[in-house]
Amino acid sequence: MMDQGTMENGVENVQRLPATDDEFGGVVVEMKEHMDSEVFHTLLKTSMSLWKLQGKKGVWIKLPIYLSNLVDAAVKEGFWYHHAEPSYLMLLYWIPETQNPIPGNASHIARVGAIVLNDKREMLVVQEKLGNLRGVWKISTGITHEGEDISVGVVREVKEETGIDTEFVEVLAFSQHHKVFFGKSELLFLCMMRPLSFDIKIQETEIEAAKWMPLEEYASQLSPQENGLRKYITELCIAKVDRDYSGFSPTLVTSYCDGNPSYIFLNKGDLNKQS
Amino acid sequence: MMDQGTMENGVENVQRLPATDDEFGGVVVEMKEHMDSEVFHTLLKTSMSLWKLQGKKGVWIKLPIYLSNLVDAAVKEGFWYHHAEPSYLMLLYWIPETQNPIPGNASHIARVGAIVLNDKREMLVVQEKLGNLRGVWKISTGITHEGEDISVGVVREVKEETGIDTEFVEVLAFSQHHKVFFGKSELLFLCMMRPLSFDIKIQETEIEAAKWMPLEEYASQLSPQENGLRKYITELCIAKVDRDYSGFSPTLVTSYCDGNPSYIFLNKGDLNKQS
């Protein structure tokens, strides 16, 4: 688990925690094996002295949840929490006196809302079993999974909640909301979807009811003072069906992050228009 | 710190952790005062037995970082990490045998990229000091802060990096990239910006150089095989300037989350077109 003491410049190095350098002048300690918390504390103190002498910047410690006995020692040495996932906790210490430039944890949930219209001008609507929209006919919505494309997540959500197969057409609009979930923000993408099947089979655990509702009936539920998303869902839907509204549709692009394919969503009609 | 034992149905309740009910049938333990970890462990065991009997669902424990001595006991009782911020760790236990329906932590960073064009068809470009785009002339980009609107974050980033004041016009396109930062995803919003000042003053710590570059010169940097974002930045820019490309512009809407004003970004020209 620990590096053996070695001779360097004629001085015997003390034992320290195993660490790898990162590309920003910092080190990453990824703990895997069980260790007594006092042994860990001693090694951490020694290692930190060494890294400070070496001019290291950020020091990361990744502790799997089965090493929760080591959290307290790291905090006592001045580390703070950077982020956590169910299986691990990531702690951080910034050595330089300059301000820590490391970005915080992820800040947004990506939610999708599905506007599914059949060719009878009917929209797919659901009533949820829980939450503050109980009893309201609304579009199917859900949170995208980690690593899931928006265009994939919205197809999955509609299928799960209503049993309807759909094809993603485009993003009609998006909205941003803050302090939605533990202080985090949300980006909600309203997606135009083409239905590929029509027989509804609801998800019993979360959905009370689902049906195809005439667009005009959906619109008639709104009060004249309505200025929420439901107003825009109605207007976008009518503009799309009757007036050729252009949203953003996906085009494959090489990601600047890792060179893998990603989607860029843009107004394809306008981009390809001839001048 | 703990509830006193009380008489209920003629039976004396044992001491338990202070908790409040949440709206989903669960309880929230928000620890604030220092406590010995063994005392906490005992109280947690007793409390969990009680909450199981009461049919509670999710049990949340929020531990401020100064109570890191209690993390290990909670994990030993079967809690896992839900999320962490610099100052606290949130742990979760799902009592029912059904699948835990609680959404995970935030999954996305919201990044903004600023396309700032002056009326000489010149684009504001920068070279960064660090990272894999060193030496490349690129648009100014940055990560929005917690709770910050996209349209505000992009103005701030341009100002910080180049000293240029700008006004947000619209989102020309957005792209989604996965596994960008500790497994998290990124949504990148390419924003059209109108410059309100023209004298560049760079941020010395992060930016090597900044200048106004003719659009055609920016385009000429790209190889014919280029299929990354830089190709679309060029094309979107030319489509916007020469062909009236419509992106998504912001309109105030009442948030469905909390009734506060939020922005919905949509194709305003198309939405307001007469049929």
From TrEMBL, chains A, B:
SUPFAM superfamilies: Nudix (SSF55811). Keywords: Hydrolase, Metal-binding. GO terms for molecular function: ADP-ribose diphosphatase activity; metal ion binding; NAD binding; NADH pyrophosphatase activity. It comes from the Eukaryota. The keyword Metal-binding applies. It holds the Pfam family NUDIX. Residues 107-235 form the Nudix hydrolase domain. Belongs to the Nudix hydrolase family. This is Nudix hydrolase 6-like protein. It comes from Artemisia annua.
